[in-house]
From TrEMBL:
Keywords: ATP-binding, Kinase, Nucleotide-binding, Transferase. One of its GO terms (cellular component) is cytoplasm. Residues 298-402 form the MOFRL domain. The keyword Kinase applies. The keyword Cell membrane does not apply. It comes from the Bacteria. It holds the Pfam family MOFRL. InterPro entries: GK-like_C_sf, GK_N_sf, MOFRL, MOFRL_assoc_dom, MOFRL_protein. This is Glycerate kinase. One of its GO terms (molecular function) is glycerate kinase activity.
Length: 411
């Protein structure tokens, strides 16, 4: 099921279906995200006219292209390579005409990779605020609201720099609700959020620095382009892959195996361990009473949970979910689970996720590991590494958010 979910978001299959009309002038391809290099390769292989361009992806996620330059940078905390790439992308789209076409290939991860600080801010300021947001428990929409208002390219500012050129944006969604303005902080689409929203988010999570960031948000000198702005007239936006389509592909795999699939939602959010407790309750009901679906069944969901890191562990929302689920299930017979990020990276770790089996807790005890203590320490990565139950895929070159499935078999 996990493999099917990833395959359903393969850029090589999807990008050729959404090619824009050829322009009279130049075609400039730009992009950012964990899937942007694979999108670039698919685009240049399908495009029958001249083109040039530059996309930035995460370290290890690059693929060779002939006409589009691929650069790699850091994620989830931006680095100098991302700052340099963002500056070069801005230069590529400046000075274009109405006869030119900009093709924006955008996928999850682009917020950190397009690291162009707004005037008066430094890369170090952006690194510090990113680290604080990642540990705060803020959801992806909240994090990207702040990022948009600290950037020279996010929140539609890249589209403003490219005017009056026509823009076609191809998106792989990694966010609940598939909002174009949230994916990679929407560099080429309108931004409905404001500086006031960004200030309120930092206040909500008790984030009070760096001072330059706070001052910039208070100054609110230049708001992002909003919906209805004529700047976006004539632009195309195509959602080429979504979490829901990947969940449906996984459900088809279950159905073919004689297992009844139940898709709960493609946009579940909240603290990973709390989501685990809810799904544990659903699994217990299905195992005991055949409700809301009788065994054999697969309870499938997507979305993006959060982890408020309070312990000494490395976080990771999928492993935190699974460790919370294992503790809540208490070794319930007949229940297995997988959770993984479809990009192959759970948090900042080069691990997609992990597996839970009915004997997870027992095997941990045999190793002298206290499962509840590991959960309290946010140490899901260390826990599943010790058990040998990690899901390691390497870069998948796409990103449609997290995938979770609970398999419930008859006792």
């Amino acid at each position: 099921m996990f493999r099917a979910a990833v395959a359903a978001a393969d850029p090589a299959l999807l990008v050729p279906r959404f090619l824009p009309a050829r322009p009279k002038g130049r075609t400039i391809v730009i992009g950012a995200g964990k899937g942007s290099a694979a999108m670039a390769r698919a685009f240049e292989q399908a495009w029958d006219g001249p083109l040039e361009g530059l996309v930035v992806t995460r370290y290890g996620h690059g693929v060779p292209c002939d006409r589009i330059e691929i650069v790699e940078a850091a994620h989830p905390v931006p680095d100098a390579a991302g700052r340099a790439a963002a500056g070069r992308i801005l230069e590529k789209v400046r000075g274009l005409t109405a006869d030119d076409l900009v093709v924006a290939l955008i996928s999850g991860g682009g917020s950190a990779l397009l690291a162009a600080p707004a005037d008066g801010l430094t890369l170090e300021d952006k690194q510090a605020i990113n680290r604080s947001l990642l540990r705060s428990g803020a959801d992806i929409g909240e994090m990207n609201t702040v990022r948009k208002h600290l950037s020279a390219v996010k929140g539609g500012r890249l589209a403003a720099a490219a005017a009056p050129a026509r823009i076609a944006t191809l998106l792989i969604s990694d966010v609940p609700g598939d909002e174009p303005g949230v994916i990679a902080s929407g560099p080429t689409v309108p931004d409905p959020t404001t500086f006031a929203d960004a200030r309120a988010i930092l206040a909500r999570y008790g984030i009070d620095g760096p001072p330059a960031v706070i001052a910039h948000l208070e100054r609110a000198a230049e708001e992002t382009p909003k919906p209805g702005d004529p700047l976006f007239d004539g632009h195309e936006v195509h959602m080429i892959a979504t979490p829901q389509r990947s969940l449906e592909a996984a459900a088809a795999v279950a159905r073919a195996a004689g297992v009844t699939p139940l898709i709960l939602s493609d946009c579940i959010e909240g603290e990973a361990r709390e989501v685990a407790r809810v799904l544990c309750g659903i699994a217990r009901q299905a195992a005991a009473y055949g409700q809301p679906v009788p065994a054999p069944a697969a309870i499938i969901s997507g979305g993006e949970t959060t982890v408020t890191v309070r312990g000494q562990g490395r976080g990771g929302r999928n492993v935190e979910f699974l460790l919370g689920l294992a503790v809540a299930l208490r070794g319930l017979p007949g229940v297995w689970a997988v959770a993984g990020d479809t990009d192959g990276v759970d948090g900042a770790e080069e691990v997609a996720g992990a597996f839970v089996t009915p004997d997870t807790l027992a095997r941990a005890r045999a190793l002298g590991i206290d499962s509840a203590a590991s959960l309290a320490d946010n140490d899901g990565h260390g826990y599943f590494e010790a058990l040998g139950d990690r899901l390691v895929t390497g870069p998948t070159l796409t990103n449609v958010n997290d995938f979770r499935a609970l398999l419930i078999l008859p006792r």
